[in-house]
Sequence to fold (486 residues):
Amino acid sequence: MKKSMKILNNLIKLKLDSPWYEKAILQKVTLLSLSGNYREITSLLAPIVEKEKEINEENKTFFLYWAIANLKTEKYCVAQEYYMKLIKYFTDSPEIHSVVTGYIISFYKCFADNHVRNRMFLSLKKEFKHRLSILFQIYYLEGLLYFKDGLYDKAKNVWKDTLEHFPDHPKIPFILIKLDKIFQKQGDKKVWESLLLKINKDKRYSSDAKDISSLLLGNLYFEEKKYENALPFYFNILNKKKYRKFCLERIVLSYYYLGKFKEAKTNLGILFLENPHASDQPKFLFLQADLLLRLNKTAEALQLLEKIVKKKGGSVDPWKFKAELELGKIYYLRKGYKKAKHFLEDVFKKSELDLETSRQASFYLGLIAFQEKRWEAAETYFQFSSLSHNNAIKMEALFRLGCVLKRKGAYRESMEVFQRLLKNFPGEKKWCELTRLELAEIYMKQKKLEEALKVLKSLLKATKDKQLKNRAEILIRQIERKNVQK
Fold:
């Protein structure tokens, strides 16, 4: 290339009326455009543009390069002026697509007023209404430029029209991906769902467009945690090679979140068989470990969880975070409290990574502190874990918090917590009965014997738990003895 450039430079040094001059200029411009050196192209072409003044059939290629170079160097108004003139000279040639694209971009960048831009697009659509390939290009670029400028409503409206007018165009899948980003940003998911379902069923759309619509519908339902709705759309495109791995991953996760562990395990096996490297990813190692735990294969699960935690880097990986929680729970159940605390405290301290996981870790730390009679720590942990979205943890955390406050002699605060538990979970027989027993004991400590007796008799009548009945009967006898002594 250097040798060619040297020869061309020698030819260009000849006089402007040399018959080889223009050919040498064109050749050098071509080489410069390949290397992206557009500033040198403008310098090289400036004398010719100045000399020629007007565009004609003989010099139109020079002016096309001139327009391109000005566009690339962001001299949009200069580029727009020449592209506008060039359109009529290239209307019947293959380069018309490039000329129209350059004109649209340079005009759009040169004129910031949206009204002026709209007039330009309407004018082009009218001029090329019978040239469908160019008409699509106009629609497509209009939407793309609005999208890049963050004018999402305009982009959305243009591209919705594009879908309607050009349903089988090869670029429709790309437009659908861009539209998905717009609808996700704007949160108008119902309208997007309706549009995707229409495309998925409409015979006018290409198979590629239908595949993308299936993928986007699956993702839409998956993100909304509507896993049952997501699964059919992932299965629709499961046998398409470019989507298969992603769909398998989502199918595994969907079955897992639905509690269909057998189906999750089957598809996880297929995923590992087809993509062996997936078996080393924290996400799927964790799922594999969790499925083993559900089969009571704790030792195997423990190895996988420890493998996740020991992986280098990825300290903010949510699955690594979940693995630490599971390890803490396992060691807690095995009464290995020192190891349990090591993992659980790490999760608790990193609540900014995953608040819910930290709340669950806090619950188990509270149980350990409760056993160790560290009441202040237990109170802190149960306060935090009582905000969990997991109702089982939330109920027990509230109950334990009430018990801790009772142990500390904070009877009023303890009763408030117990009353909150009764109000929020009236149908949970076990925790409500235990709570009533605790309330009765608080009344007794406050010497409110009639209130305690009333609660105990109500509990005795309702419960079928023998231990609770025995405890209630013992407390009733204690109250009766105290009343006799009076």
